[in-house]
């Protein structure tokens, strides 16, 4: 998604728009530069996940360790890992 002073516009395959419900109607927060007649599928996102207060820091720690592994070159091709798992 790209944007300008008029609002978001489509430049690729995905577009994220934020809408709110007002009086039972979906209302777009900003103008969108979209062709007339464009049909959009909206997905409800409650902006939460199922992690509790103990699980969130554990996930953050695991992701940080994973990023460090990538920076240190401790990676291998996904196809290699998938082949290994299939042999089990």
Give the helix/strand class.
alpha+beta
| Secondary structure: number of strands | 4
How many DSSP helices? 2
Tally of distinct domains: 2
Indicate the overall shape: elongated
Query: How would a crystallographer describe the biggest sheet?
Result: 2 strands, antiparallel
Q: Radius of gyration, Cα only, in angstroms?
A: 21 Å
Helix and strand pattern: EEEEHH
Query: What share of the residues lie within helices?
Result: 25-40%
- The whole-number mean of residue pLDDT values reads 79
Largest sheet, spatial ordering of strands: 1-2
- Strand fraction equals 15-25%
Please report the distance between the alpha carbons of the first and last residues: 42 Å
Q: Residue ranges: pLDDT <50 for 5 or more in a row?
A: 1-7
Question: Can you characterise this structure?
Answer:
It is a single chain. It contains two helices and four strands; from the N terminus they run E-E-E-E-H-H. With 88 residues, it is an alpha+beta fold. It folds into two domains: 47 residues, no CATH class; 33 residues. It is elongated and about 50 Å long.
Task: Output the keywords.
88 residues, alpha+beta, 4 strands, 31% helix, 2 domains, two-stranded antiparallel sheet, 2 helices
């Amino acid at each position: 998604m790209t944007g300008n002073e008029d609002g978001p516009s489509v430049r690729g395959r995905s577009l994220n728009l934020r809408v709110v419900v007002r009086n039972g109607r979906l209302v777009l927060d900003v103008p969108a530069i979209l062709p007339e007649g464009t049909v959009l599928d909206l997905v409800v996102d409650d902006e939460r996940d199922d992690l509790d207060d103990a699980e969130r820091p554990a996930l953050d720690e695991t992701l940080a360790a994973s990023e460090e592994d990538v920076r240190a070159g401790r990676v291998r091709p996904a196809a290699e890992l998938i082949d290994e798992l299939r042999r089990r």
